[in-house]
From TrEMBL:
Residues 17-228 form the Tetrapyrrole methylase domain. It comes from Armatimonas rosea. GO terms for molecular function: uroporphyrin-III C-methyltransferase activity. It holds the Pfam family TP_methylase. It comes from the Bacteria. Transmembrane segments: none annotated. This is uroporphyrinogen-III C-methyltransferase. InterPro entries: 4pyrrol_Mease, 4pyrrol_Methylase_sf, 4pyrrole_Mease_sub1, 4pyrrole_Mease_sub2, CobA/CysG_C, Siro_Cobalamin_biosynth, Uropor_MeTrfase_CS. Its EC number is 2.1.1.107. Belongs to the precorrin methyltransferase family.
Length: 253
């Protein structure tokens, strides 16, 4: 099990890993606990979508190691190398921060890293982050729930590998619940829309695409199941897809 947050005076005794969620993009959405972890770091292993400003919170002498995965490249060999690097640095007695976009346990493979650390006897703590699944729509003026419109929401990974492996029951749930959110799914938008129609969403259902959520360059495009594909060229991935009547609430806020 994860241990409580480790105090700075303990860091010289043994290696330690923080699995830190950096939030959805805006560096100011890093939590105070995440900031504290960065300020103690000897090594920071960071992902592709991390705001560069966050690395400035680590001490000047800390190593900053980019371990991001490029879109379309196989992820498992890279993930195995990350596991090994976390253990290797911790075994040298270092305080290691694994800085991940959003929340480390929401499509961030943080639980895999935690399990690997435990298997190798490395102490660690999970520092939750603000997930883009909620903050992204919120920053675009779209609540994932709204009284009288949507009483619940579901979140799925939309990228190629994950979407190919979603069982039909998941696709059905995504169409039946009030709000469906797909992360990293722009390349799979036609399949996502097809499944929404297959399981009963009407063509008039509102859809939003949100790119660079919470950042100054944030861009939002809205349409319906029938029209959104014609607008997707206006959005550069990665982006969040929101499907459901809550998208219309944006016009009221």
């Amino acid at each position: 099990m994860p241990v409580p947050f480790k105090q700075s005076e303990e860091r010289v005794m043994s290696g330690f890993v923080y699995l830190v969620g950096a939030g959805p993009g805006d560096p100011e959405l890093l939590t105070l606990k995440g900031l504290k972890a960065l300020q103690q770091a000897d090594v920071v292993l960071y992902d592709r979508l991390i705001a560069p400003e966050l690395l400035d919170y680590a001490p000047a002498g800390a190593e900053r190691l980019y371990v991001g995965k490029d879109l379309g490249s196989p992820s498992q060999p890279r993930q195995d190398a990350i596991h090994e690097a976390l253990v290797a640095h911790a075994q040298q007695g270092k305080t290691v921060v694994r800085l991940k976009g959003g929340d480390p346990f929401v499509f961030g493979r943080g639980s895999e890293e935690a399990a690997y650390l435990r298997q190798h006897g490395i102490s660690y703590a999970v520092v939750p982050g603000v997930s883009s699944a909620i903050a992204g729509p919120g920053a675009a003026g779209i609540p994932v729930t709204h009284r009288g419109i949507s009483a619940g929401f579901c979140v799925f990974a939309g990228q190629e590998g994950e979407a190919n492996h979603l069982p039909e029951s998941h696709w059905q749930a995504a169409a039946l619940i009030g709000t469906a959110v797909f992360l990293m799914g722009v390349a799979r938008l036609p399949k996502i829309l097809e499944k929404q129609r297959q399981y009963g969403r009407p063509e008039s259902t509102p859809v939003a695409l949100i790119a660079s959520a919470t950042c100054p360059e944030q861009r939002v495009v809205t349409g319906t199941l029938a029209t959104i594909e014609s607008l997707v060229s206006e959005i550069l991935p990665p982006a969040i897809i929101v499907i459901g009547d809550v998208v219309g609430v944006r016009e009221l806020l």
